[in-house]
Amino acid sequence: RFVNTGKQIIGPVPGVEVGDECKYRVELTIIGLHRQTRAGIDFVMHGGRILATSIVASGSYEDKISNEMSIIYTGQGGNYMLPRKKAYDQKLKRGNLALKNSLDEQNPIRLIHRLYSSDGQRKYVYKGLFVVTKCFRKRGTRGKLVWEFHLRLLL
Amino acid sequence: RFVNTGKQIIGPVPGVEVGDECKYRVELTIIGLHRQTRAGIDFVMHGGRILATSIVASGSYEDKISNEMSIIYTGQGGNYMLPRKKAYDQKLKRGNLALKNSLDEQNPIRLIHRLYSSDGQRKYVYKGLFVVTKCFRKRGTRGKLVWEFHLRLLL
DNA sequence: TAGACGTAGA
DNA sequence: TCTACGTCTA
């Protein structure tokens, strides 16, 4: 059913439907839903600048998913929840820059959410297409600057 | 066909045959051939001491596979071929201790070999059961002590 | 909590 | 060559 062409896609991925699940990050890469094996934000060069194509919310940063309609997503770099990782100010580059550009462009972004089954098994669930509605910089709980992105479900 | 019981096994794994292939390390973990997702030596506590159960030869250390019958396998720790990794003397613990114990015990050890298909795709191939025939410490090419293990195919 | 022959893409 | 919301076992 999956038809990964190997090329990065903005928007829906053929053969992948909302609610589809994976156990490992590398499976998301294989089916073309999110090519980055570890990074939370995937992006593509489009019209001379990078745009975000998909994000993975796994709980490693301070994300907030209040309901199925909206999500507050923390940018990448230097603000892991894991205390052993060194904290530093996030830069407006790579994934963070891509998400900021996507606010201007209003392009659809695939959201993958890591959660746990009733039996405690970790899994990644495709939640559909979202757009960035807001983006600003704030001070994170670890005292360093973070980029915060607000997204809402595309209807 | 695979029947991973979740328990560590010494010897053949039910449903897995010599020549079986995987694309990712995590698949080896899933089918029970090699539970460690990154470490090259897997082991189990047996009769009060640890014994090696499987090894993965991926070329990250100075391994030598002259033919299908025998392999020279370098122990774990501090001697990656990658120059950016810091070099240090290998210790006789964890996987290295397990392989040394397996020399005494002469228990079968599964060998998985990472190689490349004709199309350049990386893959892990199960090569069968081996026993440790020799084990000693030497000075590696990076100037640090390494444990070297000689294994040969069990007929 | 840390260690370990991981991965793909920029 | 480096980055990155990895992933398992001890």
Question: Topology, pairings included?
Answer:
The structure is a homodimer of 155-residue chains.
Chain A lengths: L20 E2 L2 H7 L9 E6 L2 E9 L12 E5 L19 H12 L3 E8 L5 E18 L5 E9 L2
Parallel strand pairs in A: 3-5
Antiparallel strand pairs in A: 1-6, 2-3, 4-7, 5-6, 6-7
The structure holds a DNA duplex (10 and 10 nucleotides).
Major pleated sheet of chain A: 7 strands, mixed
What is the end-to-end distance of chain A? 24 Å
- The residue ranges of chain A in which pLDDT falls below 50 over 5 or more consecutive positions are none
Radius of gyration of chain A, in angstroms, nearest whole number: 15 Å
**Residue-averaged pLDDT of chain A:** 91
Tell me the number of strands of chain A: 7
Counting DSSP H or I runs of 4 or more residues, the number of helices of chain A is 2
- Structural class of chain A, by secondary structure, is mainly beta
Percent helix of chain A? 10-25%
The quaternary state of the protein chains shown equals: homodimer
Q: What percentage of the residues of chain A does DSSP assign to strands (E)?
A: 35-45%
- Shape descriptor of chain A: globular
Order of helices and strands of chain A: EHEEEHEEE
Attribute tags:
homodimer; about 160 residues; mainly beta; seven-stranded mixed β-sheet; 2 helices; 7 strands; globular; DNA-binding
Give a verbal description of the structure.
Two copies of one chain form a homodimer. The first copy, chain A, is mostly beta strands and 155 residues long. Helix content of chain A is 12%, strand content 37%. Chain A contains two helices and seven strands, in the order βαβββαβββ. In chain A, a hairpin with a 5-residue loop joins strand 6 and strand 7 (145-153). Chain A is globular and about 45 Å long. Chain A starts with 20 loop residues before the first strand and ends with a strand. The chains hardly touch. The first copy, chain A, binds a DNA duplex (10 and 10 nucleotides) through helix 1, strand 2 and strand 3.
